[in-house]
Amino acid sequence: MTVKELIQMLALTKFSLPQPDREVTGGYVGDLLSWVMGRAQAGNAWITIMSNQNVAAVAVMAEVSCVILTEGVVPDDALLQRARQQGINLLGTILSTYDTAAALKQFLS
Amino acid sequence: MSEVKLTYQVDGGDLVQAGEASSKMKMTLKKLGMPAEAIRKAAICMYEGEINMVIHADGGRVEVEVGLDKIVIRLIDHGPGIPDVDKAMEEGFTTAGAAARNLGFGAGMGLPNMKRYSDDMEVDTIVGVGTTVTMRVDC
Known about the structure:
The structure holds two protein chains of two kinds.
Chain A: H1 3-10, E1 13-16, E2 26-29, H2 33-39, E3 44-48, H3 54-62, E4 66-69, H4 77-85, E5 90-92, H5 97-108
Parallel strand pairs in A: 2-3, 3-4, 4-5
Antiparallel strand pairs in A: 1-5
Helix pairs in contact in A: 2-3
Chain B: E1 4-11, H1 20-31, H2 36-57, E2 59-66, E3 70-77, H3 85-88, H4 98-102, H5 110-117, E4 120-126, E5 130-138
Antiparallel strand pairs in B: 1-2, 2-3, 3-5, 4-5
């Protein structure tokens, strides 16, 4: 499944979408940035409520396919700017973290 | 390809800006045509190191040597040093303050991640003098 398809299925908000055709290989949920870097796999959709600029750096280093901000969280301006500069797919939803992860799992299996 | 040497300066204090040096290194490694998995490992190792230098040591310097079969990253700071390296290597142990934790850092996973993603890691530290962490990522 591509990021573009995931957006359609979950009706996600597109804050930044420079790479819509990236493949989503799975998911990782977490707000502690080093846990994400330690455990997320390249290509995972990263589900989080963290919305500061460091999220962009972690997304780049961990090579996630997209970041999904849940619970209605919106990115701060610096994160939005950095996501656009660095080619990061940054998405949003009003769904809870749990519901987002559950839906992702369902779509992937 | 002969060995390529890269040097980066990491500014202290501003955690929000941290990651610039690692991003630059990552782009350079891509341009040099290094293997994708080695680039990912090296980038995570260096980013964790960069964060540590900003949180604990008011910045520092990073030297990277890129060879055909390995990437060696050396993080050099003149911070307070690490009194108990074994303790610092434990997952979950942290001395980071509230400011770092509020941004999502300070989970006590930095050094463990650097060990996890490198093929070899050495920590040379003297309390009151500084710390040098050397990591090797094989390609």
